[in-house]
Amino acid sequence: VLTDPAFMCGAIVANYFSLPFVFFMRGFPCSLHYTAPQCPNPLSYIPRLFTFNSDRMTFFQRVENALVSLLEPMYCNGFYEDALKLSSEVLQRDVSLTELVGSASIWLLRFDFVFEYVRPVMPNMVFVGGINCGQKK
């Protein structure tokens, strides 16, 4: 099943029928595309979304980064609350967001690795950069 994680319908259907599924995505709002497949995500180096920090942070920016990372699971679970309720009803068991998206077979990431922070990724993560780029005039 080729699906977009903005709507969890594809992931829920794939889990229900025990089918492999592929995410074709730009990224999750709370770095879930790195947390779910268990990629290393060091707080001292990788800046969090909306902090506007670079990979070279001062001590206080690292503290801010750590605090933002503590809040990410709460707002991400709130954002996908309805999808988690639906998936618990359909799959007839309690499902966490990380468990639901972590079972993806392949992650097709629509961004170029060059523009992101250098970080280790899992073997099932494939960068397909250049899709969102406009043609120069």
TrEMBL record:
InterPro entries found in the cross-reference section: UDP-glycosyltransferase (IPR050271), UDP_glucos_trans (IPR002213)
Gene Ontology molecular function: UDP-glycosyltransferase activity
Cellular localisation: Membrane
Alphabetical keyword list: Glycosyltransferase, Membrane, Transferase, Transmembrane, Transmembrane helix
UniProt topology in membrane: Single-pass membrane protein
Domain of life: Eukaryota
GO CC, alphabetical: membrane
Family statement drawn from the similarity comment of this UniProt entry: Belongs to the UDP-glycosyltransferase family.
Protein name: UDP-glucuronosyltransferase 1-3
Organism: Cuculus canorus (Common cuckoo)
